[in-house]
Known about the structure:
The chain has 266 residues and is an alpha+beta fold. Helices cover 27% and strands 29% of the residues.
Amino acid sequence: xxxxxxxxxxxxxxxxxxxxxxxxxxxxxxxxxxxxxxxxxxxxxxxxxxxxxxxxxxxxxxxxxxxxxxxxxxxxxxxxxxxxxxxxxxxxxxxxxxxxxxxxxxxxxxxxxxxxxxxxxxxxxxxxxxxxxxxxxxxxxxxxxxxxxxxxxxxxxxxxxxxxxxxxxxxxxxxxxxxxxxxxxxxxxxxxxxxxxxxxxxxxxxxxxxxxxxxxxxxxxxxxxxxxxxxxxxxxxxxxxxxxxxxxxxxxxxxxxxxxxxxxxx
Length: 266
């Protein structure tokens, strides 16, 4: 079957790309090796941090576009995807990392607030930190509801005319001047003028079939959900900010409770 564009991988990246292309009038088929809602990739789960707090100005600028994009998607779907909780970046006093974040935010005219350890703990009693600590608080930080966003992207992509083929992995990829040919494990063969690879951990092996050596290394990122002890303070959305802690050489993050009971840390 001939299409203008084939998107391989239907997680957040692939489905967003397919939707954007279909809205531009392209004929798009999106291929996903597993069934909707699977947990083998990087797009499942109840929440992801969204923030302006990056040390690289280009990422701060991209975050501004991302916020606008999520808000537009919410309006199109009539579903809340972006939960504003505020975001905290913590570190030791005179932290070069926090100084870099402050510089980048100021350069992009994003408002933020420096906090001492005492001021931080008064505002957010869920958090304990050493007296020598400091923080940057950015009020627009928050959580994107990941599972909900994925489902919305699929629904809107289908409504925009994207054909979605699920449950069959890509086995072969071939390319020539006319475009690409894709062989699925089901025996289906797709041809298209253009190819979008959005298969995450599988991108390198798929690209290798096209003679491309992508310098990608796949890693497993462990996370955990910690149950909270009721002590008169809440740990849910609207009660606790997102957190990135730079006190050690191995920074960690934490999200307030979204759907899964417990505070997510990684």
